[in-house]
């Protein structure tokens, strides 16, 4: 079973690398980050569903979920930075935009 877990973990890591490459196809950094936020969130949802189906996350499944949750948090922080750094920023509009973006990613 350990070999299968290792293979699955490698596949998930490769998928994460693929998402970054696909995000780089967008010209604007904001679009790259939004793409990653949406896809990391979807990946986490799939990992959670797999854990429910298996009735246990298992050590590797839990690690992969935490890995993608960290990537998601990191990219949300980058998105906020980009919004603040580009132009005069109305904080109320920024918060509404972030809430909308995060809600759409669920």
TrEMBL record:
One Gene Ontology term, aspect cellular component: GARP complex
Domain Vps52 C-terminal residues, every copy: 4-79
InterPro entries: Vps52 (IPR007258), Vps52_C (IPR048361)
Alphabetized GO MF terms: syntaxin binding
Any single biological process term in GO: retrograde transport, endosome to Golgi
Protein's recorded name: Vps52 C-terminal domain-containing protein
Source organism of the structure: Vanilla planifolia (Vanilla)
Organism taxonomic ancestry: Eukaryota, Viridiplantae, Streptophyta, Embryophyta, Tracheophyta
